[in-house]
């Protein structure tokens, strides 16, 4: 499929006896994807395989039309990677790091230096770009890592835990940059994180990995729709009669802060049904507020279903 | 730090697809080493043999200074002058110091700061990385061995007014500097790749050089070993023996010179193999 961003067929990978990826099949079109999964789900292994850091054990794949197994150099020219954790040489300044890595990507020296200034300015560096990386805060280091990943203007960007360790303001700024790049629709993004709100803010589609398997690859809106509506309610008086009736209709409910209860309706059941059931149970409602299911709830539900199976 | 008002600007250029990928590493390495605090002092120190031998070459060519050639046996012939220049203890020691100064941190620093994922996410292979690092160490070693050798040859041609140089002299002057460059460069890379601490790498390179000399100088009384045979343990002695073979000095059989270069190749090969294995699998 020529217009596909990523196509993986039956990818498995084991570290000794531990299976990190187990028969992964993926077909992604260009877009912004959140790669979700608990620790040990296989997110990092998948990224490392796609970048060619790990050899393929089974299966095959193509990324941006390049054979992931055989065209490593070509692929790496077209991909930007922002690794997790410390990886910057502190003796180098921001502009040196960015220009140096730009040149390693295949940019001509002067052009790499010019572009380094441009992208550093874009991510929010002023005169700081001439300072050594050792003097940077965590937020600045993360932004520098983002700048080096986009210096050669790649069509695909891998972000591995990009907001890790950042303060709220820095996190907000970085997510704003990612959203802006995503909005241009020039660059596809694979955003690996365990911070679900980050994905909610930036991505339109998610890939959920669990125990080396892909549980879902869907647009966030579809995932929400599939999981039905949710309503927060508060009753006057005892709420148990109403909750029993709701349970019989297939609703799931969870106690929230104070007297509030979150009710997740099964697909096809309109929220107005809660009023009817409240009337039948003789339980007046003090609060009735339709809410969107958070990604966290959807994510946990997927994991629960998977564990149940 | 405020985010810039202007949005993301796409890059309009094209990426180079051919050429040596280690070039940016070489360029960055040369500049970084040159900018180090003590670099100029070390370079001045390393240039001393050249200055002394430039005077020697000049003296050997002036009739009024001919008497000096009778007093200093190293001035007796061109081969002797160049042999002494290349194989003197001071120059060899300085080249070893230059190697550890320029490349002691070459791989260690990248390992220490976990920079491999950042580097190898680029179209860079382990081979490109290694040759890039190796090349700038070689650059500095050759800058103070091969380049002065060529300058000495030029001085000789200029002051003698004749282009008639012995073929052996030219060949030896061009080939010999490659041996210390290969040996010190590869050992530096090897040691730098086995530790994350650049200081440990530098001390190890220095220690290995000095220890090999000390070990070879220990005279063990016995039937199996003689001082001459133990010389093969010494990096310095092997370089000297190879020099003796190329310049035709020392009165030693040719096999000793050949064995010396084989030993140099062995150490270099081993060090480069270790470095290659230690560099991240990402490449």
Summarize the structure.
The complex is a heterodimer of chains A (about 300) and B (about 280). Chain A is α/β, with parallel strands linked by helices and about 300 residues long.
Largest interface: A-B, 57 and 38 residues
What is the general shape of chain B? globular
Count of the separate structural domains of chain A? 2
* CATH fold title of the largest domain in chain A: Rossmann fold
As a percent range, the share of strand residues of chain A is 25-35%
Which structural class best describes the helix and strand composition of chain B?
mainly alpha
The topology string of helices and strands of chain B comes to HHHHHHHHHHHHHHH
Number of DSSP strands of chain B? 0
How much is the radius of gyration of chain B in Å?
22 Å
The poorly predicted ranges of chain B are 219-224
Q: What is the count of DSSP helices of chain B, taking H or I runs of 4+ residues? A: 15
What is the overall number of helices of chain A? 11
